[in-house]
Amino acid sequence: LTDDWLTVLGDRFGSLSSLDLSGCTAVTDDGVKEVARLTRLATLKMERCLRIGDAALQSISGLTRLSTLSVAGCSRCSDPGVACLGSLVALTDLNLEQLPRLHDAGLTEAVARFSALTNLNIGWTKAGDELIAVLPGRERLTRLNLSFCHLTARGVGLLSALSSITALKLPGCKTNPQGGSGGALVMLSSLAKLRLLDLSQCDNVADDTLAGLCPGLTQLRSLHLAHTQVTDSGVAHLTGLLQLRSLVLDCCH
After folding, report:
1. How many CB atoms lie within 10 A of CB 253?
2. What pTM does this model have?
3. Averaged pLDDT of the chain
4. What is the structure's pLDDT at 175?
5. Distance CA 81, CA 225 (A)
6. Residue 155 clears pLDDT 70, i.e. is over it
7. Per-position b or e across 196-229, b if 16+ CB within 10 A of its CB
8. What's the CA gap between 248 and 253, in Å, rounded?
9. Percent above pLDDT 70 for the chain
10. Which three-class secondary structure string do you get for the chain?
């Protein structure tokens, strides 16, 4: 699929409501300009479109009916482009995973305007505490993916205020050695609605972490602890999780 095909699409299918261009590596910023003509789009997926960048995001910023947007793996996209997405205030599902040029600066400017978000995926970006700071108060947000992001104890504390969260993914989160989040993770015990928690490959997750976490997470159904410092003693703290259905302990102690 090429830019020329998208020109035809814009000419003939103006009423299109959903479009998936994922993996279309020949599509460029120019092609996405044609997509911007499809003003009735509610769902747009452009995952792993390796030739699109910030200009493409600026082009689609006028598609104000979008409720679902994914540009995961579009590695040329960065802060200025994502900041342009702030006009898409109807977004409920946003996937910005694997955008290595994305930092708090671009994310906070856009996400601060997304009051309708229910699902936010910013795993494998440079997101950190400043992005988390704009999330409290979003009662519709139920799913959050922060895989391999950069959090400190302050960021974890801010996460603990997201009372509506039911699924939280934090695998491999980088922590500041002056404010590591390993012990701070016990603050997440306040997330009483949580059903899925992924702490795989997190720094300093150990038996005492589980001792502090588990009493408050009575609705938890899925817990991922692979590649952590958890031992048999830590697993003993899980006995009160009566709803637990899935437990991942690969490469633990």
Report:
1. 12
2. 0.94
3. 93
4. 61
5. 35
6. yes
7. bbbbbbbbebbbbbbebbbebbeebbbbbbbbbb
8. 13
9. 96
10. CCHHHHHHHHHHCCCCCEEECCCCCCCCHHHHHHHCCCCCCCEEECCCCCCCEHHHHHHHCCCCCCCEEECCCCCECEHHHHHHHHHCCCCCEEECCCCCECEHHHHHHHHCCCCCCCEEECCCCECCHHHHCCCCCCCCCCEEECCCCEECHHHHHHHCCCCCCCEEECCCCEECCCCCCCHHHHHHHHCCCCCEEECCCCCCCCHHHHHHHHHHCCCCCEEECCCCCCCHHHHHHHHHCCCCCEEECCCCC
| Lookup: tokens for 85 | 């997405």
Count, residues in the chain: 253
Tokens of 152: 């400190």
Tokens of 30: 């120019």
Token digits for 46?
Answer: 């452009």
